[in-house]
Amino acid sequence: MSIQSFLSKLFGNKSQRDLKEIKPVIDKINAIGPTLKNLTNDELRGKIDEVRQAIAHAIKADEDAAAEIRSKVEDLPFDERQPLWDEIDKHEKNILDILEEQLNEHLPVVFATMRETAARFAANETIEVTATQMDRDLAAKGHDFVTIEGDKALWKNHWIAGGNEITWDMVHYDVQLIGGVVLHQGKIAEMATGEGKTLVATLPVFLRSLSKKGVHVVTVNDYLSKRDSEWMGPLYMFHGSTVDCIDKHQPNTPARRRAYECDITFGTNNEFGFDYLRDNMAMAPQDMVQRKHYYAIVDEVDSVLIDDARTPLIISGPVPKGDDQMFNDYKPNVEKVYQAQKRLVTQILADAKQKITSEDKEVRKEGELLLFRAFKGLPKYGPLIKFLSEEGMKNALLKTEAYYLQDNSREMPIVTDPLYFVIDEKNRSVELTDKGFDVLTDKNQDPQFFVLPDIAGKLSELENITDLNERQEKKDAAMSDYAIKSERVHTVTQLLKAYTLFEKDNEYVIDDNKIKIVDEQTGRIMEGRRYSDGLHQAIEAKEGVKVEAATQTFATITLQNYFRMYHKLAGMTGTAETEAGELWDIYKLDVVTIPTNRPVARHDMDDRVYKTKKEKYAAVIEEIEALRAKGRPVLVGTTSVEISELLKRMLDMRHIPCNVLNAKLHQKEAQIVALAGQPGTVTIATNMAGRGTDIKLPQEVKDAGGLAIIGTERHESRRVDRQLRGRAGRQGDPGSSVFYVSFEDQLMRLFATDRVMKMLDTLGLKEGEMIESSMVTKAIENAQKRVEENNFGVRKRLLEYDDVMNKQRTYIYNRRHHALLGERIGIDIANMTYDLIENLVANYDQPGDYEELALEMMRVLTVELPFTEKEFNNMSKEEKVERLYAAANDTLNRRSQRIIEVAMPVIKDWVENRGANGRIIVPITDGKRMFHLRVDITEAYNTGCKSIVKEWHKAILLVTIDELWKEHLRELDDLRQSVQNASYEQKDPLVIYKVESFHIFESMLNNLNQKTLAALMRGQIYVQPAPQQSNVSVAGSAASPAPQQQAAQTAPQPHQQAPAPEVRRAMPERPNDYSQYTASKESMPGENAQRQAMANAGGGPRKVQPMKAAPRVGRNDPCPCGSGKKFKNCHGKGM
Questions:
Q1: Cα separations (Å) of 922 from 934, 1021, 1070?
Q2: DSSP letter (8 states) at residue 752
Q3: Per-residue model confidence (pLDDT) at position 640
C-alpha cells in the first residue's frame, strides 16, 4: 500500500473532506424543506422578500455613508480628496463583506425555497399568486409563462426555451444542493454527464442575485446562453429577480445596457469580454454597459479558463497601408524550398530504410542518422510515419534524438545542415538553414536578401565614424535595412509554417472563400478567430484565397485576465480534476468532485494498441459492426475533421449508416445528438463535440448494454478523453468506453518515452495483432500526464508574458474610467503633476541645470521657477519637488478659476433671464486644438461653472489616454514580433519583451503626463475678438453642429459689451460608432516566443528574473529586473 493510499484511508481523500464540510449546510436545507410545503404560494414568495429586505437593511449604513462622502469630495482641493476616497473604498469593501455574511446566513432558506418552487412547478400546470408589478410587466411584454387575471397572476409550468416548448419536470437532488453550495463558495463543481449542471446553477445564481450587484452566467456559445436564460428564467422571475441575455441584443445599445442592469445576466464568454473592451473605448458614461464585476458562474469552466484562457479578445481597426503585405510575393520562393525539402526527405528516407537493415553496425548507425534527419525535415510525411510504426523504428529514432540533443545539441548541425529547413513539431517552429536560404533567394536577387544582418555588430562598427551626421545617417540606413529584412524573414517563416505544420480540413477549413480555424477538441469552426503574427495571412496566401489586410489593435484582453476581475468566480464542468493544479495556481479556484445521484455503471476498458493506423481503423469498423448487431448505439470520437470523414468513407463502403458531427456539419449538432441514443445509430464526432448536451437512451438500448464509446485516438490531455467517456453512463445508465491506439498516433509519435516503445516492441506485435493490457493503458496515461505538465509549464510562463500587458492595461483603464465618470479625476491630475515634476527634478538636479529646468517648466507647465538659482543650488531634491508642485497647482487652479469667471456671466444670463435648460456646447482651446464640451447648463449654473472645468479635465484626459494607448499597443505588437529574433541570439524572447515593454510603458506614461498637463495649463474658453452672440439648446453630441446651424441658432446679447464666449446648441446625442472596429479572437499569441522560452528556460548559463511591469518605479527602489541593484544603478541608469 502506498503512503498516499494509507493517508487517504486514515484521513479520507479530498472529495470526502469537502463533502464532510458541506454536509451541515445540506442538513439545514433539508430541515427547512418540510416547513415550506404548507405555505401558500404568496407566503413562499414572501420568504424571499424577507431575505431581500434583511440584506438591504444590513448594507444600508455603509451605502448611506459612502453616498454622503461622495457628495463632499468635489468641493475639496485636489490634494485633499484622497483620504475621502480611501474612506469610500473602505465602505464599499465592507458592503461586500457584509453581503457574504448575509448570503451565507440566508443560504439554507433560499436554497430550500428554490427547491420547493421547482417542485411546485413540476407538480402543477399553473401556480396562482397575487399579482405584483413585475408580474404585470412580464405579462405585458408577452412572456408565455405568466398571465394576469384581475389581481391574480397565473404562472404556467411550460414555456418556450431555445425554440422548443419545455414542461418543467425537475426538482433538485441532494447532490445538486451540494453542487450549489460549492458554486456559491466560489469553487469549481465537477459533475458527471446528466447530473443537471444547469439546474444546480439556479441555486447560487438566485441567491447571489438577491445582492442586487449583478450575477453573470457564462456559457461557451450563444445558443446555450439564450436557451438557459429562457429555460431557467421563469424560476428566477417568479421570485422577483430580473433576467436577460446579452446575446439577444446588439453591442452598445440601450437594450444590452438594460440586460446588464438585470439581477441575472446570461451571455457567452466572448461577449462579456468584448463588452468590457468596448466600455473602455466609450467616450461618455452612457455608452458603457457593464457594472462592476461581482459574481460569475462559468459553464464548461475547463474549456473557458484552460483551453481559451490565453486567447486574446481583440478589437481592432484599419491601419494605413494595411494591404501592403508580402505573403503572395514570396509564396513562390517558399513553395520552391518546400518542394525541394520534400524531394530530399523522400531520398533520405529511402537511403535510411536500406541502411537500417544492414548487418554492419556502422552502416545501421548511418541509417538511424538519416531517419532522424528525415524526421527533422518533414515529421508529418506519411511514408515516414508509416515506417516509424514498424518494430524498433520509433525506439531507434528516440535513441538517435537523445544522442544529438546531448551537450546542448552541440552535434545537431550534423543532422540539420543537409536540410533546407528544420521543423520542431512539438514547438511548432520552422527554421531555415543556409542551404534553404540559397534556394529561397532567386538567382537575380541579393544573396543576403532573406538574411538578417548582425545589427549590433554593424552599429558598433559605425561608432568609429567621426563625422556625427554621416554616422547618424548610416545608422538610420542600417536600422531601416534591418527592419525591412526582419519583416521579410517573418513573412517567409510564417509561410513555411503554413506549408509544413497546418493542414487543410485538419487545423482549418475553407468556407465562403475564407480560412476558418477548426477547434482541435470540438471540431467546430471558430468564427471570427484568426491566427496571430501573420500566420493567418500566410495560410490565406498558401490556399490562394484573399489575403486580409493587416489591422491595428485598439483594445485587447485575454479571458484569463477578464475573469480574474470578478469579486467571486465559480465554475462547473464534467472534467476539471486533472487541471485542478492549474485552476488553483492561476485563479485560486478549488475543484470539488460532486458525487453522482446514482452510481456510475459504465465499463471503461483498457486501450487496444495496434501497430498502424490502417489496422486500428479496421478494428474500429469491426467493433462498430459487432455493437450494432447487439442493438447498441455507438459514439465514435475522433481528433480531427479528416479522421471523421475517413471513418465515414470506410463505414459507407460497408453500407453502415452513420451521422458525422464536425466543423463542416456543426449546424446539425442538435439533430445529430438527439438521434445518437437510438438503437444501432452510429455517430462520429470529435472528442468534445456535443458537450453540454446529454445523449438520452430508450429502455431497449439500456437493456442491450447502453451507449458504446469508441475513441479512435488518445488526446494529449486526459481531460478530453474523460469528456468523451462521460457521454455514456449518465444517471446510472449502462455503457462502455474503449480507446483504439496505434504507434502512428500523434501522442505516441511525439511524447511516448523510450521505455514505452521498448515495452511495446518486447511484446512483439505482428501485423493485425492487438495489445490490450492495463500496463500499456497506464503507460499511455503517464505520457499524457507529461504532456499536461509541459503544457501547464508553457501556459504558466505565458501567464507572466500576459501579465505585463494586463498590469499596463489595468492601470490605463483605471485612469480612463476615472476620467470618463469624473470620479477621482482630481487626484489623478494631482498625481500626474507630482510625477512629472519629480521626473523633471531628477533629470535637472545638478547645480548647472537651473536654466534648463526653468525652460522645461515653462515649456510644459507654463510655470516660472518659484526660487532663485542660488536657492536651487542649496535645496534638497524633495524641497524642489514640493515647491514646484505647489507652484504648478496654483497655476492650474488659476486657469480653472479663469474658465469659471469667463463662463459664469453667460451661463447666469441664459438661466436667469432666458430660462434655458438642457445641454450646451462650450468651446475651450489649449492654443492648438479646439474642444467642444457638452455641458448641462443647469448643472453648470448650480455648481458655479465647476462642472465646465471638470468636463474640460475629462475631455483632455480621455483624448490623450486614447491617443497614446493606441500608439502603445501598436508598439507592443511590433515588439512582440521583433523579440522573436532574440531566440537566434540564444536569449529568452519573453524576458526581453518584459524589459522592453516596461520601458515603452514608462515612456508612454511620461508622455501622457506631459501632454495632459501642457493642455490643462493652457486651457481657456475660446472668445472671438469681436462682440459675439451666444445660443443655448437641448442635449446633444460631442460633434460640433454644422456652420449654418450655428449661425441660425445664435441670439443677440446687446447688454454685454465685452467679448463673450460662444455657447452653441448641442446636437442630439449619438452613441459611439463601433462599426469601424472588428471584434475577433486571436489564436496562438506569440506562440513561438512562448514555447521557445519554455524550452530554453533553465538551459542557459544564467537565469534572469523577468522584469515586472508597473506604473512607476522610484529611482531608489529595487530594480524590477531582480538584479538586487537600485533602479537608478540598473535599468534606470541615465533616465
A1: 7, 7, 18
A2: -
A3: 75
